């Protein structure tokens, strides 16, 4: 058995890592493939080393995209709809090792961007929350110019492009919240259950948040392809999405996940209020179609406060020596979000 694109020949060392990994993931028996193609594992290992160096030492954007497309493909194995024959190589040790090495290299890069000294972090949980809010408020991602542009300047096409770009994370947020529920500390269950119930549209299928977002896409004439919804994303958007899966799939990163989710909920209301004003300015006035964003303007104010009071504060009390992890999760989210907004702003303003 051979994998299309993996046959021996000149130029194989230049094959993209995500192409190689995707082909492996689709094999019925990866061990059989390895026995038939004994040069395949060294080929992939060589490309892995190359792409890590290019992405995180030489800062090559195309290499970062290759890293995050690979991680996206590997993470996707954990959230596919289940069924016979689905994700046969989900836990294959070779692929898990590839994922681990990519994650470790990416983490070193992200940690290198965070200016944080442990002795700066208050020991009191209440003081920690104030410090968290201050760092959040001072980060440039929380007030990015892309939303001012959408509110006051953009014409219709940039809004459509924004919605398509926003699709990956929004359509999958149900799964991301569900991951945060696994093994949940008892004192946190009510807050996260409320968040999940909101994602589920309070029991009404048409009001489930992923369906509300699809309604928005239909309204503006954007095509939704569930098997191809990451194709439009650059490395910045993929990194932001991958961060949620990275934290959600690793139990050791639970505190980071809390920080990540908290700032995500905190950012939405003010930014989406500007977005909705801009929509109405360009004639996108159907409030039923805009329900996804309108709900996040109102509901996420309570969610942001709830995450801090009912999730972050109890965890700061329970793990007072590890509150830095909450900050690290938040800062990683804010940094990847800023990268995403910067890239998307550049794209949208060229459409204006």
From TrEMBL:
The keyword Oxidoreductase applies. It comes from the Bacteria. Gene3D superfamilies: Heme oxygenase-like. One of its GO terms (molecular function) is oxidoreductase activity. Signal peptide: none annotated. Keywords: Oxidoreductase. PANTHER family: 4-AMINOBENZOATE SYNTHASE (PTHR40279:SF3), PQQC-LIKE PROTEIN (PTHR40279). This is Conserved uncharacterized protein. It comes from Stigmatella aurantiaca (strain DW4/3-1). The lineage of its organism: Bacteria, Pseudomonadati, Myxococcota, Myxococcia, Myxococcales.
């Amino acid at each position: 058995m051979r994998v299309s694109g993996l046959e021996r020949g000149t130029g194989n060392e230049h094959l993209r890592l995500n192409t190689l990994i995707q082909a492996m993931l689709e094999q019925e028996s990866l061990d059989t493939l390895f026995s038939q193609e004994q040069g395949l594992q060294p080929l992939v290992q060589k490309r892995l080393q190359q792409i890590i160096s290019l992405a995180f030492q030489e800062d090559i954007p195309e290499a970062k995209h290759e890293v995050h497309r690979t991680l996206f493909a590997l993470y996707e194995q954990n959230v596919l709809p289940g069924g016979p024959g689905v994700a046969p190589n989900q836990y294959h040790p070779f692929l898990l090792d590839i994922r681990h090495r990519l994650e470790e290299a990416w983490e070193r890069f992200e940690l290198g961007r965070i200016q944080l000294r442990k002795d700066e972090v208050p020991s009191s949980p209440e003081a920690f929350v104030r410090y968290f809010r201050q760092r959040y408020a001072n980060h440039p991602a929380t007030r990015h110019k892309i939303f001012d542009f959408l509110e006051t300047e953009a014409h219709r096409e940039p809004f459509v492009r924004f919605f398509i770009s926003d699709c990956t994370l929004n359509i999958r947020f149900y799964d991301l919240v569900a991951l945060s529920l696994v093994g949940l500390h008892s004192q946190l269950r009510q807050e996260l259950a409320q968040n999940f119930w909101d994602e589920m549209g309070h029991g009404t299928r048409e009001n489930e948040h992923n369906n509300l977002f699809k309604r928005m896409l239909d309204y503006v004439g954007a095509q939704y392809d569930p098997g191809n919804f990451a194709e439009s994303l650059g490395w910045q958007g993929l990194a932001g999405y991958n961060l949620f899966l990275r934290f959600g799939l690793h139990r050791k990163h639970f505190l980071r996940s809390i920080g990540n989710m908290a700032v995500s909920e905190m950012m939405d209301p003010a930014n989406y209020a500007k977005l909705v004003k801009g929509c109405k300015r360009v004639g996108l006035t159907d409030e039923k179609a805009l329900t996804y964003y309108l709900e996040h303007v109102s509901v996420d104010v309570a969610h942001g406060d709830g995450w801090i009071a009912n999730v972050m504060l109890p965890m700061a009390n329970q793990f007072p020596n590890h509150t830095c992890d909450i900050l690290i999760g938040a800062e990683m989210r804010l940094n990847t979000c800023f990268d995403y907004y910067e890239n998307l702003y550049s794209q949208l303003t060229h459409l204006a």
